[in-house]
Design a protein that fits this description.
CATH superfamily: Metal-dependent hydrolases
Number of helices: 10
Number of strands: 8
Number of domains: 1
CATH architecture: Alpha-Beta Barrel
CATH topology: TIM Barrel
Distance between the termini: 29 Å
Structural class: alpha/beta
Strand content: 5-15%
Order of helices and strands: EHEHEHEHEHEHEHEHHH
Largest sheet: 8 strands, parallel
CATH class: Alpha Beta
């Protein structure tokens, strides 16, 4: 099974995408399953993991509702408020849904680079780790040292670094990013997504060669069994088409063993999000509760 392990859907009239504005041009419209499915067929992608794009519980419920109506959605990575006294209650509410497969912590725009190490936040991440529940980590390059410390302090965390940690590819940033990623990769429970790279490059003038060393290093540091392909569609459209994003990764994987390619392009997502035994049985109750 070929899986896109990182993509998004949104509907503007929901009103909770504070980062979306008309200035973003091509992104400032609705993006729903019917918009992506032709591209999935073209690239031979069977299923996707949809990841939250707004820091609200309502958006997660919206995505779970889409998942009930779209066979292409294998799972949803949602959001809960790590600062709320009702954190556990929020989690238990959405975790009732059979397609809730992960929680994402949106760190990239926070001023405090060590936010995840605050005692209250650390306690709640540990709470998820104790339940072996997958956690996506959305960070920028300067926040990677804190993630390195996080995965050392919670070594059993089932975590994945989104977008290869967002190095500044346009500026050819390397040494700090590489050493931080090596530290993170030393934890065998942590994975990495080959996603979000084109938007860290020069949007108008990138070349395929811009990404080769970053992909090779990620595969070397984490190993082909802990790396996943993700398109970051539709955000990728700021710099590249869906097919271009897929080709960048697939062309670089071409020299790997076929089993390793299959892992990166699907099996690892099934493993990380605990889907190898199949999605939990979808109930009528769940479909009604999360339809929106």
């Amino acid at each position: 099974m070929r899986i896109d392990a990182h993509q998004h859907y949104w509907r503007l009239d929901r009103g909770d995408y504070g980062w979306l504005s008309p200035e973003l041009g091509t992104l400032y419209r609705d993006f729903l399953p019917e918009d992506l499915e032709p591209h999935l067929r073209e690239r031979g992608i069977d299923k996707t993991i949809v990841v939250q794009a707004a820091p609200t519980l309502e958006e997660t419920k919206f995505l779970l509702g889409l998942a009930d109506r779209s066979d292409s959605i294998l799972g949803v990575v949602g959001w809960v408020d790590f600062e709320s006294d009702s954190f556990e209650e929020q989690f238990e509410t959405i975790a009732k849904h059979p397609k809730l497969v992960g929680i994402r912590i949106m760190l990239q725009d926070l001023e405090d680079a060590r936010y995840v190490l605050r005692p209250a936040i650390l306690e709640r991440i540990r709470w998820l780790a104790d339940r072996d529940f997958p956690v996506d980590l959305l960070v920028k390059e300067h926040q990677l040292p804190a993630i390195g410390e996080l995965v050392e302090r919670i070594p059993h965390l089932r975590g994945v670094v989104d977008h290869i940690g967002k190095p500044n590819i346009a500026a050819k940033s390397w040494s700090g990013w590489a050493s931080d990623m090596e530290r993170i990769a030393a934890n065998p429970n942590v994975y990495c997504k080959l996603s979000g790279m084109v938007t860290e490059a020069d949007h108008a003038n990138w070349t395929v060669e811009d990404f080769g060393d970053y992909i090779d290093f990620t595969l070397s540091a984490f190993g082909p069994q802990r790396v996943m392909f993700g398109s970051d569609w539709p955000v990728c459209l700021l710099a590249a088409s869906y097919s271009q994003v897929a080709e960048i990764v697939e062309d670089r994987l071409a020299n790997l063993y076929s089993a390793d390619i299959a892992d990166v392009m699907g099996t690892n997502a099934l493993t990380f999000y605990k889907l190898l035994e199949g999605i939990r049985d979808t109930s009528v109750h769940a479909r009604k509760e999360f339809t929106s």
